[in-house]
Design brief:
Helix 2 packs parallel to helix 3 and helix 4 crosses helix 8. This protein is globular. It is 33% helix and 23% strand. The strands form two sheets. It has a seven-stranded mixed β-sheet with strand order 6-8-5-9-7-10-11. It is built from nine helices and eleven strands. It binds adenosine-5'-diphosphate (ADP) and magnesium ion (MG). The site of adenosine-5'-diphosphate has 13 residues, from helix 1, strand 2 and strand 3.
Amino acid sequence: MPGEFTLIERYFARPTPSAVLGPGDDCALVQPTPGQQLAITTDMLVAGVHFLPDTDPKNLGWKALAVNISDLAAMGATPRWVTLAGALPTVDEAWLASFAEGFFACAKEYGVDVIGGDTTKGPLNVCITAIGEVAPTQALRRDGAQAGDQIWVSGRPGLAALGLAHLQGRVTLPPLWQRLCVSALEKPRPRVRLGLALKGLATAAIDVSDGLLADLGHIAERSNCAAAVRLVQLPHLKDLAGSGETYDADLRRIALDCQLTGGDDYELCFTARGSDSLTLGRIAAELELPLWLIGEMVAGPAGKVTVFDPDGTPVEFARKGYDHFGQADT
Ligand code: ADP
Ligand code: MG
């Protein structure tokens, strides 16, 4: 059976043109671009908690890295370097090869070098640290929104949660939706280009990992104001269904719930001044990524998010942002 160093060599040590020194020494060495700040984020994925142990390792490899890159995107940072630490219960080379394939595909897509890591034996888990660069004062933080700012979200939040509901048999999606939703769940596309385009425009930003309402709540909390979301302004998932596909009341209800409270989309939710809405429209066209104006920040209790139906009546939604040690967020 190959040892630790053989495995690292075989699967994880690749050329690292953007580092001074890559895997193989006690530390990697990187030279930050002069004048830039480093944005650093870590996420751990544990088998049985964040993914099923029998998850396709190629998808897991992609997603493990993508969720970290998404945090860089949400800060408006340019992804540069990552480290990869993992524990494996046994050496399964087919699993490792497939994981590495997905992982390095994502690294290539987003232009990051894998500069080091740690490989140990233990219950299956993967921990990634991603490092990006952003100019001073340009980072998109959570605490900059003000009452009166508009609230925007990119793409089609809810697809990943619908995909999960489909895989778990809680809903049967029309065929066209199945592909879109399962792909959104398994192969999220971090919105790096959007994050970069929002620098100097967005007053606050977050990536939607726990659900739109929960994550918008984090912006509201940090920005010390409240948020009003208008149901009528949410993107219509119905448009995704091909002609002749069913979109009944049941599916509509589940789709709306996924859109507002489902996690794992990795779209960006951000706030901006009303005077910048035309510029945002231009950015959406340039990136070929829809941006939806879904509400506005309002004066009110910090962190409160209210959803309004077309009549202006508040609608209740459980905000099930995930807390590993406690209750769902309220
Ligand atoms: P140390 O004992 O000094 O911590 P290790 O023996 O853990 O070093 O790792 C040897 C080298 O291989 C280090 O440069 C480390 O960054 C790299 N490395 C270990 N595991 C991985 C991995 N999964 N992916 C990329 N590089 C790795
Ligand atoms: Mg080590």
